[in-house]
Known about the structure:
Layout: H1 11-17, H2 26-33, E1 37-40, E2 47-50, H3 61-69, H4 81-106
Antiparallel strand pairs: 1-2
Helix pairs in contact: 2-4, 3-4
Amino acid sequence: MTDQAVPPMTEDRQDRWYKKSITITTDHQRLAQRLNIVWSDNIELGSPGLDPKRPFGNSDMPGDVAEILGWQPVEWDGLSDEQRERAYQLHFEMGYVLKAALIKWLEPFMEESYD
Length: 115
């Protein structure tokens, strides 16, 4: 399949995948270990963030997800539409995973008041 078979993020996907809470799975943990964290200094003072073009190291995000998670291609030319869709969903969920991980990690350092 080509990248056109499952287009990048759409409003419909955001609506379907929006979550008020998330259960972090081993898939999320494995993906988090391979996130491509970069320093972006092209705007204002800069900040740490994820490389939006290569979130897991290469520009083929669904292929990277499949490799990291050990998926076997089921089509002669690559991932199936279902595998590609699941890769996009996991990638989208990583925003929730990162937020939850940062909050949990920072809990011991939080003060009760900020006067």
